[in-house]
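User: I'll paste a sequence; please echo it back and then give the predicted structure.

Assistant: Echoing your sequence first, then the prediction.
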Amino acid sequence: MKTVLPEIAAGVRKDAVVISLAPVVGLARLSEMLGVFGRLARLLPNAPSLVRSGFNPVGRAAGLPADARGEIEGGVRTFFDSGLTAAQVIDLVAVRPLAAAEPQIRQAYRDALPKLYAKLKGA
């Protein structure tokens, strides 16, 4: 993201709305990386929220006008009204390049994290 956003900043239309799903990068940093662009929002996706079983906070930059805020809320509302099951919503996640290796990754965490936790606790 640190390299991509500055590269595309010149091509982002002034009337565009940039929506970030990045969990760590805040609005101020996004604006900075896009050349002080203010029409920004952050969605912190929580797939269960899309089937009314969780929450989905939306952060809006001060420079995001009211009409663009409505567009974002409309997009989120579309998911609420979609009638999708939780499994179908989770399948909408655009990037899951490691999905096939998920069982092995989970096992690696199960094997490594207890040892790390014990080490951190000094046990």
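The mean pLDDT is 79. The CA atoms of residues 58 and 69 lie 10 Å apart.
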